[in-house]
Structure formats: structure tokens, C-alpha cells
Specification:
Strands 1-2-3-4-5-6-7-8 form an 8-stranded parallel sheet. It is built from 9 helices and 8 strands. The protein has a single domain, classed as TIM Barrel. The protein is globular and about 50 Å long.
Length: about 270
Amino acid sequence: MKLFDSHAHIDDERFNDDREEIIKQIKESDVGAFVSAGYSLEGSLKAVKYAKNYDFIYSTVGISPNDIPQSEEELWKTLEKTENLILKTREEITDKKIIVAIGEIGLDYYWEKDDKMRDLQKKAFIAQINMANKLDLPIVIHTRDAVMDTIQILKENKVNKKGVFHCCPLNRELVKEALKLGFYISFAGPVTFKNSRNANEIIEMVPNNRMLIETDSPYLAPEPVRGTRNDPRNVKYIASKIADVKGISLEEVAKITYENVKSIFGI
């Protein structure tokens, strides 16, 4: 049995003291592959570096709503550099798909209360959807406290290769609309939390051929290791939760989600 963690941040500073050792331990575990997810230009550069150095690591490249520059002028410069990173990587590496998606991108109103900055988040989101279409890539979406605006943007801006709602909020309306639009739903640690509302219902809502699993490491460690530094080896706990709710084996969940990641990311 091999598991595929579809979203992790192995570049996070919490791994600075033992990153190489953790990657070695992941390689020796039941995790067959994972995606190192970009969220800023610097984070995307690191994600690409890890994907180049390890054959079982892939990367996404993008600017998250919490990492966009504070001015529109700087935003466009950053997005240009982001696109150039993808083009350069494609020229350098031809024997492996290093960058599998544009992400994580989207909207986050939990941290951002200023209307002007929320508008800039929308512009960054739409611009990166356009970038994904231009480069023939799917997208990885981050949304928090911004369900209606996220769905509206996706309805008004066609995403050719679709994509994934990463660490998808357990919101019935969001999941329903996301599935209608052709997106995948990625489950993370919160579905295992004892106080998590709607988790079982949302898991049951998502068809087997549209679900992914992730850790969002080093954040959101699942039960029974909640409160510790998360890493891709813990993706087995999310898979186990899904198996329990859907009444299928852990091996089936591993196989299904592995194939789903390969399908949406074109691996």
C-alpha cells in the first residue's frame, strides 16, 4: 500500500533542523509520493528545488492570498516571476513533471479585513487562473471565510484543467458547488478532529473518484497526533478516517486517492 499526500509544506521553517532526515523517513514509509506546495515566490522556488532533487516529490507554484504583495504593481511583477519560474523549469527538466499545478491560490478573508486588499486577492486569484489556462495546468485552491466569492470567481472564470480545493472547508454548499464545477476535494487533518462538524457528511458527499488526501504539513496534524508538527507520514490517518466513513478498506482509499492525484495533476 502506498499513499499520496497531495499537499504539504516541507519548506516550512519548522523543518529547518531536520528536513533531510524527515524526507528520508517519508521515503521509507508507506507514502509513495507527495506534493510540496508553493504559496509565495520564495516558497515556490523551494518547492521546485525539492521536486528536482527527489523523484517522489512534486511541486505546485503560486502566490496564496495571504502572501500577495501589498500593491498591484508589485503583484504583477511577482506573477511574472512566478510564470517565468514555471517556463524555466520546463526548459530545464524534461524527464519528469516537476510542477503539477498553479497553487496554492484563492481567497482568505479570515486574516484580511481590508476591502482593498480583498479586491487585490481577487485580482491575484483571477490572474493565476488565467496563468494556469495559459500553461495548461490545474489549480490548487485555498479558501477561508470566502466561500461565495470563491465560487463566483470560478463560475465567471473558466478553469480549463479544473483543480483541487485543498484542505477543503467542511461547508456543504462549497463542496456541492465545487463538485458541480468539476473540482476535486482534498481532505486534511480537520476531518479527524473530535470536534469537527459535518466531517462524516462531507466525506460521504464526495464521490470516490473526486477525493484526495493531504496533510498540509506542518499544520493541522490529525488525530491521534494532533498538536504535534505534522508531516506527510500522517496522511494515513486521514485515509483511515475516510475508510471508516465510507465503509471501505484503507488499501482501497490509498489506491483510489493515489490514482486521483495522478489524474488531476497529469502525473
